Automatic annotation (TrEMBL):
The entry's keywords: CF(0), Hydrogen ion transport, Ion transport, Membrane, Mitochondrion, Transmembrane, Transmembrane helix, Transport
Pfam (any one): ATP-synt_8
Gene Ontology CC annotations of this record: mitochondrial membrane; proton-transporting ATP synthase complex
Organism: Phlaeoba tenebrosa
GO molecular function annotations of the record: proton transmembrane transporter activity
Protein known as: ATP synthase complex subunit 8
Length: 53
């Protein structure tokens, strides 16, 4: 079985790293979150929690 030279291992690592980064960037920038309307913002209630230790 022939051995791979260190330069080939490095180029393989670079190719896989670039592929991973590009795939993650495409997934991140293709997602568009839904914007919360101003009407719903007033409906959000905050609860005060009283901790009893």
């Amino acid at each position: 079985m022939p051995q791979m030279s260190p330069l080939m291992w490095f180029s393989l690592f670079i190719i896989f790293s670039i592929t991973l980064i590009m795939f993650n960037q495409m997934n991140f920038f293709s997602y568009k979150p839904n914007k919360i309307k101003s009407i719903k913002k007033g409906m959000i209630k905050s609860k005060n929690l009283n901790w009893k230790w």
